[in-house]
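User: Please check token order:
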Amino acid sequence: MFNSDLPTRADLPTSAQLRRSTRNAALAAGVILITVVLPAEYGIDPTRIGRLLGLTEMGQIKQQLAAEAMADSEAQTATLDTPPQVSEPAAPAAQIDADLLATQVEAAVAAALAARTQAPAVASPDVATALPEASPGRSDELVITLAPGEGAEVKLVMAAGAVASFSWTVDGGVANYDMHADGGGESITYERGRGVPGQEGTLEAAFEGNHGWFWRNRGEQPVTIILRTEGDYTELKRLV
């Protein structure tokens, strides 16, 4: 037994009403796709409404991050596909001893000549010790000029848990920025900002990979970004 009366045929929508509702829904979905989804997800803004709402920049950043993740994945695949290098056989012990003796003699002669002339001795290229690629005390400074509408991306290569201090300023205006990281199939956004004249702080790597900033100049005049970094990272590189 029903608690309410069934609708009559007159109460049901007609075929014309259903077609009109379907047409209106499709039109609304198309408008949302063009004005919201395309700018926010893919950076495509045919109507320029997404730029006014700040959605186009979001989509461009997403596409940039997706391209970086794909490049990292391809690089890791290429590394796995590369056959292991076969080391050359070691030189005989007698030859190694002779080379070592010759190197030591050259170094002693160079030191004696330097002491006689009171000039600093120049180390032989054979015995020079290369500095490590990175140390916890590494520091860098990078200057980037951005034309109106231009973007740039700079990353620090860091191990998981590594810490680096940073400061950057915008000379001649302000910039939009996105501080994020990617690597090993992971990605994270640390912070974002619009129309910022500069920033300083500490960056702690959430995982091993590339950690840094993407800037874009939305002004009408060129600006210069001055980035200073110091801490535990192996490389500072500009990607864009």
Summary: Confidence is low (pLDDT under 50) at residues 117-135. The longest strand covers residues 186-196.
